[in-house]
């Protein structure tokens, strides 16, 4: 067994897949049973809000802090304790949302405990995201007015596919804010691409730094597991890294740079490949 004191684990594409009822919206029962047997903290690292991973946390008994909203909210949902919440400036939020609405781009805003869309944006995307987040959104007449209330932790524009993502990135750059934009996917919702807009400098990487510091452990004793290129943000800092067969090709190459401290499972998320990763590192 390697000297691993904690695991930072992406959710979608690692323990949640595309087989509804098998491993979506929650992990497969075999994965849950394996997770419950671990005697080290597992830090979930996701762009989802904390209320969308509460069932996973409860079922797997992950009674520790987690990285949610792409690094904006660091929380233990079991006892509702926060390390940090990074709030987007109201002016910046209104500026970027005005741009997206001007081009009829589907966009959601997030607070610590809710997510919100504009009434005229309700579509099939809303239905898909309701399944993924396990909660329907709050629907309002005017998203800009909603920004005035403040407390926004994340803004999520959703692209229809990879090509549409370029358009959304162009609109983001046109708004000229200091906000941070990254991207994620979900196996159930492909080819949709989920934009993750957070406060300046806030990302999964910063969330991992904050939590590992709070837990007073070293990244030399941490295993990072993800499936998308953006997960390298936190995996790079960990001594140990892993992905599944469905992992992004660029991520696989980056993980290989860790040499003997790397592992790429032969199985994908829908084959419970995470179990092989855990057995490799923790046997």
Topology, pairings included?
Layout: E1 6-10, H1 29-36, E2 42-45, H2 54-60, E3 66-68, E4 73-76, E5 81-85, H3 90-102, E6 107-111, E7 114-118, H4 124-133, E8 138-140, H5 143-147, E9 154-159, H6 162-175, E10 180-184, E11 193-198, H7 204-215, E12 222-225, H8 232-235, E13 240-243, H9 249-256, E14 262-264, H10 273-282
Parallel strand pairs: 1-2, 1-12, 7-8, 12-13, 13-14
Antiparallel strand pairs: 3-4, 4-5, 6-7, 6-9, 9-11, 10-11
Helix pairs in contact: 3-6
At a glance:
The chain has 10 helices and 14 strands. It has about 280 residues and is α/β, with parallel strands linked by helices.
Features:
283 residues, alpha/beta, Rossmann fold, 2 domains, 6-stranded mixed β-sheet, 32% helix, 22% strand
What does this structure look like?
The protein is an alpha/beta fold. It has helices at 29-36, 54-60, 90-102, 124-133, 143-147, 162-175, 204-215, 232-235, 249-256, 273-282, and strands at residues 6-10, 42-45, 66-68, 73-76, 81-85, 107-111, 114-118, 138-140, 154-159, 180-184, 193-198, 222-225, 240-243, 262-264. The N and C termini lie close together (5 Å). The chain is built from 10 helices and 14 strands. It is 32% helix and 22% strand. It folds into 2 domains: 6-86 and 203-282, HAD superfamily/HAD-like (Rossmann fold, 3-Layer(aba) Sandwich), CATH 3.40.50.1000; 90-198, Hypothetical Protein, Haloacid Dehalogenase-like Hydrolase, Chain: A, domain 2. The chain is globular, with a radius of gyration of 18 Å. The longest helix has 14 residues, at 162-175. Helix 3 (90-102) packs across helix 6. Strands 8-7-6-9-11-10 form a 6-stranded mixed beta sheet. Strand 13 (240-243), helix 9 and strand 14 form a beta-alpha-beta unit.
